[in-house]
């Protein structure tokens, strides 16, 4: 995901640890990458099913979290 690099850059100039949106976003990216690593060896249809069950809710939560911090 190419968007990740902007969050990495923002973390270096961001607020205190645990209080900036870049850190929150990076934690979500880590969860997505970890899940991808776990399902890498599975057939494509199974990976798709597991992504829908696990990653879609994570992605939705990623966008809900910043709104709750405002």
Commentary on this structure:
- The protein has 70 residues and is mainly α.
- It has one domain.
- Helices cover 77% and strands 0% of the residues.
- The protein contains 3 helices and no strands.
- The longest helix is centred in the last third of the chain and has 26 residues, at 44-69.
- It is elongated.
- The chain starts with a helix and ends with a helix.
- The model has no long low-confidence stretch (mean pLDDT 78).
Give a quick summary of the entry:
By secondary structure, this protein is mostly helical. Helices cover 77% and strands 0% of the residues.
What characteristics describe this protein?
single chain, 70 residues, mainly alpha, 77% helix
Residue fraction in strands: under 5%
What is the averaged pLDDT score?
78
Total beta strands: 0
Identify low-pLDDT runs: none
Q: Separation of termini? A: 25 Å
SSE series: HHH
Rg calc: 14 Å
Query: What is the domain total for the residues?
Result: 1
Which secondary structure elements does this structure contain, and how are they paired or packed?
Elements: H1 4-12, H2 21-39, H3 44-69
Helix pairs in contact: 1-2, 2-3
């Amino acid at each position: 995901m190419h968007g990740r690099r902007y969050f990495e850059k923002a973390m270096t100039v961001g607020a205190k640890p645990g209080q900036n949106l870049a850190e929150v976003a990076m934690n979500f990216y880590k969860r997505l990458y970890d899940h991808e690593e776990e399902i890498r060896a599975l057939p494509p249809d199974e990976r798709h099913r597991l992504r829908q069950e696990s990653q879609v809710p994570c992605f939705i939560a990623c966008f809900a979290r910043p709104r709750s911090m405002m």
